[in-house]
């Protein structure tokens, strides 16, 4: 029933998240320990460091989520935990903890796929029927898929090299953006978005258009990253900069770079829409697209994608910003969706991760 409550645990990357959600889509309680701070996130996630932080935070994250919901584990109907994909060390912390809770309180444990959770959580906020098109853009992934049902996904395309958030994080580091946003604990992607707002000539730098001749729905971001690195090097030597100095064209460069990422995503989304129409994969009157993952927080990128969607009569949706990035809410909600659908849920049957783990 809608009164069903599920506690979700997410530890697939570097954020330790826990949330309690009910069948109405209400968040009863939540807690998130985010390691997104510039100094940590710049240049990517360190798996061992992430594992240590999960290990130190998981118990508190779950306890604080329960506390804010004013509820005990015994009153929860089921547990849900991300089992893949992600960093194995990180995943293991969440899975072990969830198994421990499930055993102790005799609860059902629902295994969750991280990307499916990203793709479904917008349904907690908007009434979006299946099937719909989804574009998942984060620090670890780039997926275009048709969501046919709670447990049925058709993958249309993915990145052939880096993920867009990863490339933005690396670019932010190379541009030394932390020297501009010294005190703000923001991700590299967010730092680029903020810097781009100060641009006076956002078209100053030319970037290539990746996979221009590919007729599929795949992505490639490494060329954009390489192009950015070359531009920074060139400007640094032109200005004779050393060490920690930031190039004076930083704002325009961020804007041009961000636009090149948005343009590539927009091209591929357009391609996916055309493909779906051709193959009649989205046969409903309501044509919907859900954008999610950390990069979906970027308002500039989102508005570019919205323009593409609108051109073809599609509505675009994204979850609230804090639910676009990794969190426990989407895991709990995915559990709710699975329970609602009435799937036979495998009890403690997380077979493909750390099968040797015990408590
Ligand atoms: O979904 P997420 O929290 O974790 C992964 O699964 O990777 O996404 C984090 C990524 C980071 O790479 C970060 O730079 C990017 O999302 N990100 C952004 C913005 N906010 C976060 N990228 C562009 N613009 C933003 N405003
Ligand atoms: Zn994610």
From TrEMBL:
Enzyme class: transferase
Entry's Gene Ontology molecular function annotations: metal ion binding; tRNA N(6)-L-threonylcarbamoyladenine synthase activity
Domain Gcp-like, first and last residues per copy: 27-333
Residues of the signal peptide: none
Predominant cellular place of this UniProt entry's protein: mitochondrion
GO biological process, one term: tRNA threonylcarbamoyladenosine modification
Co-factor(s): a divalent metal cation
Reaction(s) catalysed by this chain's protein: L-threonylcarbamoyladenylate + adenosine(37) in tRNA = N(6)-L-threonylcarbamoyladenosine(37) in tRNA + AMP + H(+)
Key word Translocase present: no
Record GO cellular component, one term: mitochondrion
Free-text remark on how the cofactor is bound: Binds 1 divalent metal cation per subunit.
Cellular compartment(s): Mitochondrion
InterPro entries from the UniProt entry: ATPase_NBD, Gcp-like_dom, KAE1/TsaD, TsaD
Keywords, in A-Z order: Acyltransferase, Metal-binding, Mitochondrion, Transferase, tRNA processing
This enzyme's EC code(s): 2.3.1.234
Family as reported in the entry's similarity comment: Belongs to the KAE1 / TsaD family.
Function summary: Required for the formation of a threonylcarbamoyl group on adenosine at position 37 (t(6)A37) in mitochondrial tRNAs that read codons beginning with adenine. Probably involved in the transfer of the threonylcarbamoyl moiety of threonylcarbamoyl-AMP (TC-AMP) to the N6 group of A37. Involved in mitochondrial genome maintenance.
Quaternary structure and interacting proteins, as annotated: Homodimer.
NCBIfam families attached to this UniProt entry: gcp_kae1
Name of the featured protein: N(6)-L-threonylcarbamoyladenine synthase
Organism of origin: Parnassius mnemosyne (clouded apollo)
């Amino acid at each position: 029933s809608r009164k069903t409550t599920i506690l979700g645990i997410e530890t697939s990357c570097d954020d330790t998240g826990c949330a309690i959600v009910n069948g109405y889509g209400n968040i009863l309680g939540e807690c998130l320990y985010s390691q997104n701070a510039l100094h940590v996130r710049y240049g990517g996630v360190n798996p061992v460091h992430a594992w240590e932080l999960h290990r130190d935070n998981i118990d508190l994250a779950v306890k604080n989520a329960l506390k804010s919901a004013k509820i005990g584990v015994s009153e929860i109907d089921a547990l849900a935990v991300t089992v893949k994909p992600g960093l194995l060390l990180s995943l293991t912390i969440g899975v072990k903890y969830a198994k421990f809770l499930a055993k102790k309180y005799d609860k059902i444990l629902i295994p969750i796929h991280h990307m499916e959770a990203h793709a479904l959580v917008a349904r907690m906020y908007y009434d979006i029927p299946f099937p719909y098109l989804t574009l998942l853009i984060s620090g670890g992934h780039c997926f275009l898929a048709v969501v046919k049902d709670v447990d049925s996904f058709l993958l249309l395309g993915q990145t052939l090299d880096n993920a867009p958030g990863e490339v933005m994080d690396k670019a932010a580091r190379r541009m030394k953006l932390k020297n501009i946003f010294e005190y703000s604990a923001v991700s590299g992607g967010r730092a680029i978005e903020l810097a781009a707002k100060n641009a006076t000539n956002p078209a100053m730098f030319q970037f290539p258009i990746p996979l221009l001749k590919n007729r599929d729905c795949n992505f490639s971001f490494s060329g954009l990253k390489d192009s950015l690195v070359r531009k920074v090097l060139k400007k640094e030597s032109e200005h004779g900069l050393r060490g920690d100095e930031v190039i004076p064209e930083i704002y325009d460069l961020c804007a041009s770079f961000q636009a090149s990422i948005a343009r590539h995503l927009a091209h591929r989304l357009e391609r996916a829409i055309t493909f779906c129409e051709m193959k009649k994969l989205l046969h409903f009157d309501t044509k919907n697209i859900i954008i999610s993952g950390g990069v979906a927080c970027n308002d500039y990128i989102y508005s570019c994608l919205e323009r593409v969607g609108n051109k073809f009569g599609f509505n675009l949706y994204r979850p609230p910003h804090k639910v676009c990035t990794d969190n426990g809410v989407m895991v709990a909600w995915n559990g709710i969706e699975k329970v609602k659908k009435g799937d036979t849920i495998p009890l403690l049957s997380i077979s493909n991760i750390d099968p040797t783990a015990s408590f």
